[in-house]
Design goal:
Blueprint: E1 10-16, E2 19-26, E3 29-35, H1 49-66, H2 84-94, E4 102-103, H3 104-110, H4 117-125, E5 138-139, H5 152-161
Parallel strand pairs: 4-5
Antiparallel strand pairs: 1-2, 2-3
Helix pairs in contact: 3-4
Length: 166
């Protein structure tokens, strides 16, 4: 994932129950969320007023989510960088309801590419905005927890938090 470094980029750190998250936004919307274990670096950047509004919106939404007061991020403005195929996958993943999981195969079917299960997995793994684009809700066809940028314990925690796992 390439983070567009523009003059209007703004970054912050947010403490959450799953550790520190690093966020970046530009004047178009939220660009990325990085987990503490992610080695990518974000510059300390102040950005423009419109970029700060998008960043504050995302931080507030995440705080509400972790407080149990939010189950949907549809009102958060996103500016993820990716291919058209990745965006198709991310839109399908964004539609997975809170507290539910789907398989990679189901996502592939939903975007009309039933044979692209591995490509869906790769696109899901490249999701630059985890949590808000809830890639943690995508699991293996056999119900197994598969890769997650924040680590499998974090994926398990999120699914339990949402009531998708017992």
């Amino acid at each position: 994932m390439k983070i567009p470094m523009t003059d209007d980029l703004v970054t912050t750190r947010l403490q959450t129950p799953i550790g520190e998250l690093r966020l970046a936004a530009n004047q178009e919307g939220l660009v990325t969320i990085l987990f503490a274990c992610d080695e990518k670096t974000l510059p300390e950047a102040r950005g423009t007023a419109s970029a700060r509004v998008h960043l504050e919106q995302a931080c507030t939404a995440l705080q509400e989510y972790f407080a149990g007061r939010r189950t949907n991020f549809g009102d958060v403005t996103l500016a993820a960088s990716g291919t058209e195929f990745q965006h198709q996958v991310w839109r399908a993943v964004s539609a997975i309801p809170f507290g539910q999981t789907v398989s990679y195969a189901r996502v592939a079917n939903q975007i009309g590419r039933p044979k692209a299960v591995r490509a869906v997995g790769l696109a899901n793994g490249q999701n630059p905005i985890p949590l808000i684009v809830p890639c943690h809700r995508v699991i293996g066809s056999n119900g197994s927890l598969t890769g997650f940028g924040g680590g499998l314990p974090t994926k398990k925690w999120l699914l339990e938090f949402e009531g998708a796992m017992g």
